[in-house]
Amino acid sequence: MATREFRLPDVGEGLTEAEIVNWRVKPGDRLAINDPVVEIETAKSLVELPSPFEGVVERLLVEPGELVPVGTPIITVAMADEDGEPSTGDGEPSEEGPAPETASAPASAAEPPADAPRPAPVSTSVEERGHAGAMPTLVGYGPVASTGQLRRRRSRGGVLVTLPAPGEARAEPAAAPSRPAPREPGAHRPLATPPVRRLAKDLGVDLATVTPTGSGGTVTRDDVTAAAAQPEAQPEAQPRPQLAVEDGAARESRVPVRGVRRATAKAMVSSAFTAPQVTEWVAVDVTRTMKLLDRLRHDREFADVGVSPLLAVARALLIAVRRHPDVNARWDEDAGEIVVRHYVNLGIAAATSRGLLVPVVRDADRMTLPQLAAAIGEVVASARAGRTAPSDTTGGTITITNIGVFGVDGGTPLLVPDQAAILAVGQVRQMPWVHRGRVRPRSVVQLGLTFDHRMVDGELGSRVLADVAAVLEHPDLALARA
Amino acid sequence: MNETTSRAPATQPEIDPETVQLLTPEGEFSAHPGYPDRPDPDRLRTWYRDMVLVRRFDGEAVSLQRQGQLGLWASSLGQEAAQVGSGQALAPQDYAFPTYRDHGVVWSRGMDLVELLPMFRGTSLGGWDPNRHNVHLYTIVIGAQTLHAAGYAMGVQRDGAVGTGDPARDTAVITYFGDGAASEGDVSEAMNFASVFNVPLVFFCENNQWAISEPNERQTRVPLHRRATGFGFPGVRVDGNDVLAVNAVTRAALNRARAGEGPTLIEAFTYRMGAHTTSDDPSRYRSEAEVELWRLRDPIERVRAYLARNGHADEAFFAEVDAEAAKVGARARRECLALEPPAPETMFDHVYHEPHGTLAAERAWYAEYRKGFAAGGVR
Amino acid sequence: MAEPTSKQISKQISKQISKVSMAAAINTGLRRAMDADPRVIVMGEDVGTLGGVFRVTDGLRKDYGDDRVIDTPLAESGIIGTAIGLALRGYRPVCEIQFDGFIFPATNQIITQLARHAYRSEGALRLPVVIRVPFGGGIGAVEHHSESPEGYFAHTPGLRVVSCASPQDAYWMIQQAIRSDDPVLVFEPKRRYWDKAELDEDAEAPPLHAARVVRPGEHLTVAAYGPMVRTAMEAAEIAAGEGTSLEVLDLRSLSPLDLETVVGSVRRTGRLVVVHEAVTSFGPGAEIAALVTEHCFHHLEAPVLRVGGFAIPYPPSKVEHDYLPDADRVLEAVDRALAY
Questions:
Q1: What burial letters (b/e) apply to C28-59, b meaning 16+ CB within 10 Å?
Q2: In a domain? residue C11
Q3: Residue A133 has pLDDT above 80, yes or no
Q4: Which of A124, A151, A175 sits opposite B337 (nearest CB)?
C-alpha cells in the first residue's frame, strides 16, 4: 500500500502558515476524495481542507493548536492500492467521491455521498508533482516554498551572455551566439573602455596607434601604459575632430614643411614610421656649477627648495631653447607643418614604481630659478610618491631625463611624442680633466641630446647641446644669455 | 461576523413587485403578465442537469484549490440559474462577454469547463479561442469587458447582422458584470455607447449582493436595473435564482437586440453563496443568517421541487444526474492535476503577431542563459 | 530604401508629387487605407462632421459614411474599449485621442486589455487597433494639450509605438500601422502638423519600425523622433557652421527600437545625444542610453547624454519654449559630449 502525505497548501494567495484547529478524522478512518479532513485557521480565515486522497488515514502529523508553515505534511493516508502514479490520461471514468464541501465556513452538510463501488484511486498528491527532494510546488498564487534543489549554473564566466549584437538577433532569433559584438570590418575607431580612453588621453597616447591586446580587439589599460612608457614618436594616423582653430595662435608660429612625404592614415593600429632620431654627446666640466649650487643652497631664496644639478641642467636647457626656439617644436603631420612653441613645458622624466613617467613643469621658461627649483622638486616628489595625475604628464614640449640617478654616465634617450628633443643627463662624477693646462679632478657630467631629424638638423642640434654645455661649464654665461 | 459591519440582511424574503419571477423558491409556477413562458418539462430537466453539473464542477474546483492544485477559484455557487438561464437563451451566432465567475455561461455556450482551469492553476492567462464557442476570455479587470461588448455589437451592426429577420443571422451580444462592476466608469461608458449607437447588446448584471465585502448599498442608491432609464433603454429586474424567469427575460432582451431595438439591462437578483474567491472569508462581513435565508431560495432546489411535485422527474432521474455530476467532478480533478506548467521559453510567445526586435533579442538571450544551467537542475 | 532626394522628386512629373502638410499627408494615408480595406474604421471625438480638431480626418465622413467614420461620445476609455470590441468582430479601428493629455482615462483599456489580448488568448485573438495621438508641445496651449506620454506605452509589452517626423513618414506610417495585426500607437507631433514637404505617394516605404539616418555625420550622433527631429536638424546646421559634423538619426519607432541602426551610427561616431520632449527622468532616452552603453561600450568616447523635458509638469505656455529642448539645448549637450 502506497502512503501519501498531504502537505498544508496556501489557501489564501500568499499565506505562509496556518494553525491546525480541529481534526475531522482519526487514524483508521476511511477517506474519500473531498471528505473534510481538518479545520485550519489562517491569517485570513477559518478554512476546512478536503481530502485529496482516497484511502485510510494513517497518521495525523500535527497537533491541534500547532502553527505550521505552508508545505508541512499534516496527515498521511494509506492509498487503496499500489498504483501511486498520477492518473493523467487514465481515462478511467469511474472515480467518484462525495460532492466537495462548498461553503467557505464550516457549515451545512454536503450532498449525500453517492452509494457507489469503491473506485480505483485517481488523484495524485501535491508533492508528486515536484521532484525528488523538492518541496511541493504550490500551484498558483502565493510564495513558492524555497526549493530543496537549487538551480546550478554550469560555470560562471564560462559563457559570456550578452544580448546578441543587433542584426544577429534579427537574422536568427533562435540561435543567437553569445559572444561579444564583433568589430565591423573596415572600422577605424579604436575600442576601449571609458577609463582606458581617459588614461590614454592623459598620457598623451593615441589609441589608434596602440596595438590592442584585450578581448574583442579592445585596448587595455596595460596596453596604454606600455605605449606611454616607450615614448616612440607616434605618427598622427587618425584625424581628430577639430573643434576650432587652436587657441595657441599667439604662442606658436608655423613653418610650412616642403617636400615631406605624408604618411597615409589607413591602418589605425600600427604606426606608419618612426621619427629619425639622432643623438649627440658632450662631456662637460660642471665644477663651477656645482660650486654655484652649493652657494645657492645657503641662499635665502632657495631655503625651501631643492637645489640639484638637475635644476642647473634644466635652466641651461631653457636658456638654450630661448636661443634656439626651433628645437621646442612638434611635427604636425596633417597640416604638413612644424609647430614651434613659444612656451616651454619642461618634462622631467622620472622613474616610479608604476614605470617611467614624464611629469611636466608648465611654462618653465617663465619661472625664476627658485620657482623652477620648487616646481621640479614638486613634480619629482609627486612622481616618486605615486601622486602624479595623468593630466600632469601631458603637454610637454621638451624633456630632460636624468639617468645619472641610476649611476650611469649617459645614454641615447628616445623622444617623447610631440617633441623634437630630449636631453639625457648622466651622473656628476669626479673625473680627471684638463683644467688650465693641468690634469685635475673635476666634476664632469655627460649630456646626450636626441633630436628629431625631421625638424632639427645636425647643426641646430649641436648648437643646442653646445649651448647647454657652455652654460653648465661657465654658469656666469647665464647672465649674458638668460 | 464582524459586529461593526452588522446590518440587516441585504434582502427580504418577500419579492420586490418589480422583480420578474415565474418559479417561486418553493417550486411553484407563478405566471407573469409580461412573459408568456410556461414551464416546459424537457427544458426544466435539461436546465436542472446543467445547474447541477455546473455546481459540481464549481465545488470540485474549490476543493482543488483547498488542496493546493489551483491557486485561486471564484465560485459561482448560488448563481447557477442566472448563468444557465441566460446562457441557454443565446443563439449559436450570439457572442458572450463573461466576467470571471460565469462558469454556467461558459457551460451553456458548449465549452468544456476544464478549459477554465489553466488560468486558475497558473499555467495560462486564459488560453481558449473565444471564436470556437463565441464566449470571450474571462476578464479580470472589473467592467472592462462591457466596453468590448459594446464595440463588438457595433461591429455586428456594421456586418448587417441586425434586424434582417433571419434568426440564424440576426446576432445579439450579451455582457455579464456584477453589482460592484456597475460602479466602474467603463460600465457607464459602455451603456452610453450602446444606447447612443443603439447596438444589439444585452447588459446582464448578476447582482449577487456582494462585491467582496461591500454590499449593494455601497454600490448604488437606486436599484441597478433603473440605471438603464438614465441611459435611454429598458431595464428589468428578474429573480436571478429562477432559471425559468431568467431565461424568459433574457430571451426577450436578446430578441429585442436582434431586431435592432437596441440594448436592455437585466438585473438578475441573486446571491453569492460562496466567498468572493477562495482567498476570501465572508464570515468577516456577513451573517450566517443571511446565507441561510438565501439557501431557502436555492435555484436548483426549486426546480427539483417543481419537477418532482409535478411528476416530471423521478428518483432515478435525480440519481442519474448526481452520478453524472460525480463524473464531472472527478474529470475536473483529473484534468486539473494533469496540467503542467508551460516550458519557460513559451512565455515569449504570442506577445505580438508580427516579429518584434526587442522581444526577439530577449528570447534569444534567455535561450542562451538557460543553457548555462546544469542539466536536470530545475526549480 | 534610400529616401528620395529632392532632385529625384523634382524630376518626377506625376501629379501625385506635391508639397503637403503632415496633417494632409495623414489624411491621404487614411484614405488609402480605407480604400484598400473596407474594414478600416475611423473613430474618435469630433473626427466625423468636424474632420478632427486638427482636420486630420477632414472629409472622411462625407466620403466614407457614418458607419466607417464615427463621432464617438466623449469617453476615451469607451473609445478604446469599443475599438477592441470592433477589432474582435474583425474590423480595423483607427482611434483618435484628441490630445495627448487625454489618453490617460484610456490607459487601463490600452494596457490591461489592448496590449494583452493576443497573449491572453495564446495567439487566437488579434487586435489590429491603431491609436493616433497628436502629441508634444510648442503650440501655446493650456494644460494637458502638450504632453509626451509615449514612454508609458513603449514600456508596455504587447503594444507597438511609432512616431512620424515628416509628411512622407506620416503618410507611410499610418498605412503600415493600420495593416499591422498588432495594436499600434502612432504619436503625431502636433506642432509639425502644418510643416509642408514633398510627398511621394508612390515611393516605397521603409519598414514601419526602421530608424533612419536623416543627416549623415562624423563627430556625434543625435537621435530623435517626432517633433525633435526637426530640432535636431536645426542644431546640426548650426554645428556644421562651427566645424562639427552631427549625424541625425530619426528613430521613428520606440517599440520596437531599431537598435541595429542606432548602434551602427554610434559605433561610427563614438558619441550619442538623445533628444525628446518627454520628461528626461525615466524617459525613452534612458532606455536608449542603457542599450547603447551596453552595445557600444568600447566605442563610446563620452557617456550618452539626454536632452528632454525637465522633471516638472508641462509648464504654462509662456515659458514652454524655455522648457522644450531647442537647438541650443541640443548643442549644449553636444558640446559636453565632445569635451570628453
A1: bbbbbbbeeeebbbbbbbbbbeebbbbebbbe
A2: no
A3: no
A4: A124
Among residues C62, C127, C70, which one has the least CA distance to residue C96? C70
Q: Is C268 inside a domain boundary?
A: yes
More reliable by pLDDT, B56 or A46: B56
CATH of the domain at C312: 3.40.50.920
**Do the Cβ atoms of B364 and A175 come within 8 Å?**
yes
Question: Does residue C219 share a domain with residue C154?
Answer: no
Pick the CATH number of B19-338 from 3.40.630.30, 3.40.50.360, 3.40.50.970, 3.90.180.10: 3.40.50.970
Residues C268 and C195 in one domain: no
On whether both C272 and C299 belong to a single domain, the answer is: yes
Cis peptide before B39 (omega within 30 of 0): no
Chains that touch A (3 or more CB pairs under 8 A): B, C
Do residues C46 and C177 share a domain? Answer: yes
| Chain C residues touching residue A197 (CB < 8 angstroms) | 301
Residue C105 lies in a domain: yes
Interchain proximity A45–B371, CB inside 8 Å: no
C238 has pLDDT over 70: yes
10 Å CB burial of residue C318 (0-12, 13-18, 19+) is exposed
Q: Are C227 and C192 in contact (CB under 8 A)?
A: yes
Q: Supply the range of the domain harboring residue C321.
A: 212-338
Q: Is C121 on the interface with B (CB under 8 A)?
A: yes
Buried b / exposed e along B347-368 (16+ C-beta atoms within 10 A) = ebebbbbeebbbbbbbbbbbbb
| Alpha-carbon distance A60 to nearest alpha carbon in chain B (angstroms) | 16
Query: Residues C249, C143: one domain?
Result: no
C234 and C146 in a single domain? The answer is no
Phi first, then psi: give them for residue C55, nearest 5 degrees: 65, 15
CA distance B357 to C239: 33
- ipTM of the complex as predicted: 0.90
Q: Indicate the residue among C167, C200, C233 that finishes a domain.
A: C200
| Average pLDDT of the residues in B347-374 | 93
Instruction: State the pLDDT at residue B69.
Output: 95
Q: Where are the domains of chain B?
A: 19-338, 344-374
pLDDT of residue A384: 77
Residue A184 pLDDT class (50, 70, 90 cuts)? very low
Task: Give the model's pLDDT for residue A332.
Answer: 85
- Among the three residues C200, C223, C240, which one is the final residue of a domain in this structure? C200
B 354-373: CB under 8 A from C: 354, 356-359, 361
- Residues C47, C190: one domain? yes
Domain count, chain C: 2
C-alpha grid cell for residue B221? 442608491
The C-alpha cell that represents C183 in the structure block: 495594436
Taking all residues of chain C, what is their mean pLDDT, rounded to a whole number? 95
In angstroms, the separation between the Cα of residue C42 and the nearest Cα of chain B is: 13
Q: Which residues of chain B neighbour A172 with C-beta distances below 8 Å?
A: 364
Beta-carbon contacts below 8 Å between B and C: 151
Nearest CA in chain B to C258: B357
Give the pLDDT confidence of B120-165 residue by residue, as tens digits. Answer: 999 999 999 999 999 999 999 999 999 999 999 999 999 999 999 9
